[in-house]
Amino acid sequence: MDVLSEANRRRTFAIISHPDAGKTTLTEKFLLYGGALVGAGSVKARDGRRAAASDWMELEQKRGISITSTALQFPYRGCAVNLLDTPGHRDFSEDTYRVLAACDAAVMVLDSAKGIEPQTLKLFEVCRERRLPLLTFFNKWDRPGRDTLELLDEVEKLLGLPAVPVTWPVGFAGDFRGVIDRRDGSYTRYTRVARGSQVAPEELIDPERAASEEGLAWETAQDELELLSEVGADLDPKAFLANESTPTFFGSALTNFGVGKLLDAVIELVPPPEARLDVDGQRRPLDAGFSGFVFKVQANMDPSHRDRIAFIRVCSGRFERGMIVTHGRTGKPFNTKYAATLFGQERETVEEAYPGDVVGLVNATDVRVGDSLFDPTDAPVTFPPIPSFAPEFFMAARVRDTGRFKQFRRGIAQLDEEGVVQVLRDPEFGDQAPVLAAVGRLQFEVATYRLENEFGAPTELSPTNYKVARRTDEASEPALRRMRGVTVLRRADGSRLALFESPYWLERVESENPELTLDRLVAEGMAG
Ligand code: G4P
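Above: inputs. Below: predicted complex with guanosine-5',3'-tetraphosphate.
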């Protein structure tokens, strides 16, 4: 099979949203439209609890949420669509960010009654840093919401990104009938089916009939469309690829209205994988030997196996299960006999994969987030590291039973390597009282759960006073350490983080001591 034509068929993206905007529902509907689900309802259980699709850990089941990210692949219109699931709960974690490093685009789902919400904004910023092309879906148009033009305006104002409507709703939010495709003026009218369990029946209706049957809703839509053409809001694929405008769609994931149009746009607009830049800024040709990088490591997905899966995004070449690849960081050979794709709890052996695909390597003991793997018969390659993100929560960790200190120490080192939490140490205290740092509180829950259940080291976490971190250096450390309300801790790689008790305090220290190194962390190493 030709690697280039296979790569060209791939569309690899993630859905980003604030919790409850409809990411899970939309994921399920994409699978329904892709023929990967017979009837909707299996990604998310009816009673509001997440069903089996990504409940890997007992903890997830207990909380009824999905912590781990799934990579789903399904065929659609001749393409192989890779949908990387970002955890969508209130407390998100670094995994959410890392997934975006493995994507070629993202779909931002907004609740039409709410517009841009805080978590959408955070995720959007990561997309912007990576210059990830972004499609926008205004969801829940089937129920009362805000005005179309006002929503477009909000995206433009808050994100600084022009929202360019590709489809336009006929009927206001709550009286949704169908969408007009602005590219050819066609009108698609939908019919509801119970809970959207099947593909929504649709009819292409000519303008005359639409005008007589839809009445005022049609007239309003036409007036709005005229207004849009006057301001020149037309789709420009180049601007989309450069993250300079976002093609926008209206719909309802629940009733399936507009879902097909959005998925079509994923196929038409999301770029196929490109030759990826390595750390030296050279592009690894798509048809070079196999290469990929690890964007996520998940341990203990299956308690009966206690195993560890490294998720790899394939960047070049053809991956074949069983091939021996080189693990870049250690230079050691790595056997890929246990390669899997994951669809919820089901593991399916994967025989081959191409650029854009995600492969899970089971029992990848030494493999860490950011590591590169490649075919030893071709030139070695190292892809840029995946950035660690500015932590916002800091907890002091202490083992409950000092007799278990060894286990505790091993556990936190492991969790740090996997990137479950960031571990910060005071050189004087070392592992006695490390500070665990995270971008979302749920990371702590996962860490303590694993310390206790996997490493046998019940751990107590207590809050610290720190609220914000900056990267600093050896020269600035002594002065910072002398200040009150500041501490300097180290990461395992020796880099130093200065922690401050408040953003206000940080601001003051910065303005009074301009000679100190206090670098922002939000997007360390994000180029690439
Ligand atoms: P999330 O993954 O982004 O957190 O959101 P999720 O899909 O779970 O959706 C959150 C809630 O919004 C769900 O309701 C879901 O049914 C509803 N929803 C999603 N899309 C639409 C839509 O297009 N229209 C309407 N009206 N509702 C939508 P729930 O009450 O939490 O759960 P359920 O009991 O309905 O499943």
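The domain at 13-64+82-269 is CATH 3.40.50.300 (Rossmann fold).
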